[in-house]
From TrEMBL:
This is Ig-like domain-containing protein. It holds the Pfam family V-set. One of its GO terms (cellular component) is neuron projection membrane. One of its GO terms (biological process) is synapse organization. Residues 1-17 form the signal peptide. InterPro entries: Ig-like_dom (IPR007110), Ig-like_dom_sf (IPR036179), Ig-like_fold (IPR013783), Ig_sub (IPR003599), Ig_sub2 (IPR003598), Ig_V-set (IPR013106), Zig-8 (IPR037448).
Amino acid sequence: MLRWRLAGGMSIQLAAAIFCMLPLFTSSTGDIRHHGTSRARGWRAGVQPAADVTANNTVSNITAQLGGTAYLHCLVGHLSERGQVSWIRKRDWHILSSGKFTYTNDERFQVLHGEGSEDWTLQIKFVQKRDNGTYECQVSTRTGIVSHYVRLQIVVPEAFILGSGEHHVDLGSVIHLICIVEKSPTPPQYVFWYHNDRMINYDATRGGITVETEPGARTQSRLTVRGATLKDSGNYTCSASNTEPASIHVFVSEGSNKMAAILRRNTSAIHGITSSGTCLLLLTSVLLHFGLR
Ligand SMILES: *[C@@H]1O[C@H](CO)[C@@H](O)[C@H](O)[C@H]1NC(C)=O
Ligand SMILES: *[C@@H]1O[C@H](CO)[C@@H](O)[C@H](O)[C@H]1NC(C)=O
Ligand SMILES: *[C@@H]1O[C@H](CO)[C@@H](O)[C@H](O)[C@H]1NC(C)=O
Ligand SMILES: *[C@@H]1O[C@H](CO)[C@@H](O)[C@H](O)[C@H]1NC(C)=O
């Protein structure tokens, strides 16, 4: 009898330990954030593969965001006096530019070349989906024609909320939602959260709401609503400046989570388990207990 009770008590402790370790196991989102910001730094600095057009038929890939500006670099060293640099769109063999002159009515295209510079950049503003494709930087010299190709890929930013379309939380607990905006080399200017039709980023009447947004190539916005009440149920929408909105349905109910109910019933057993330090101690004691048997 005593043994049984001991074992029972231990299983509750183990459950508690696992439950409070959960945040540690789900911390992989931290990696995403880190990855996102480092990638964003790369984009902002304009680090793009650019080839020196001395080797023939080189290819580089670049990505541009729908509505943004694309820079297609072409480095030409020692261009002789009669040499000429042209940009050609492979889709329709349209000669977009020759030297510093553009041969297109589309004013979004422009060649950027500073005096004495080796860079002949084709700039495309307000990038559209149909700009997707390959562009050729053709350099004609006395010895022949040498080409560098740039594959331009247009990406369309997307937003989604982690988890399935439904999110269940217990009365009084915390609603925690994470919205990801990806395929967005230029981070969105803002991410707004809505509860049904109401914008809640700066909601002071409800209180207990925080929004943290980490901009990057993969922007992450975290919504936290503390002390969930039945009124907090409903449709939550994440709306970023450069994407379609994403929604999730939140259900606040009593005792939807059996584990949480067990934990509440045994609050004395797990009293004060809030820090992961205590959790670790608890887990260690559980492991030791089993290990010594
Ligand atoms: C460019 O992208 C293609 C596929 O889209 C890939 O095969 C190639 O290796 C890439 N080139 C570079 C230089 O990244
Ligand atoms: C570069 O390659 C093209 C075909 O891909 C060829 O026609 C051209 O002569 C080459 N240029 C040089 C300088 O080798
Ligand atoms: C752009 O072209 C690539 C292949 O060249 C394709 O995989 C991609 O889906 C295209 N993107 C858009 C937005 O059309
Ligand atoms: C949630 O609200 C948004 C904006 O009001 C709406 O576009 C979306 O369809 C709603 N989603 C659900 C599941 O009701």
